[in-house]
Design brief:
94 residues, mainly alpha, 3 helices, 6% strand
Length: 94
């Protein structure tokens, strides 16, 4: 991972983990995904944008954990735009 990220300028980008670290193993990509989720959440908090303010919620950034030992492997999101009632959308966001 360190070798692949040697020239990277940021971990907060639209590139996939595989694109950022093309020579890494699945286990390393899983770790990179967790690191990038934490970095994105920290950046959002630093800039004053809470992860729950968006209409597309990343459950990992909000602290959601999987029951399996492997953790959440794929990005798990909730799209609040599909909820028509504003009060219910706000409740889910909270």
């Amino acid at each position: 991972m360190v070798r692949d990220l040697d020239g990277a300028t940021t971990l907060i980008s639209d590139l996939t983990d595989q694109q950022m670290c093309p020579r890494s193993t699945v286990a390393v990509l899983r770790i990179l995904g967790r690191v990038r989720t934490a970095v994105r959440a920290g950046h959002a908090q630093h800039t004053g944008t809470a992860p729950a303010q968006d209409d597309l919620l990343d459950l990992r950034a909000l602290g959601q954990r999987s029951r399996s030992p492997a953790g959440i492997r794929q990005p798990k999101t909730v799209d609040l735009r599909s909820i028509q009632q504003p009060w219910l959308r706000g409740l889910v966001r909270t």
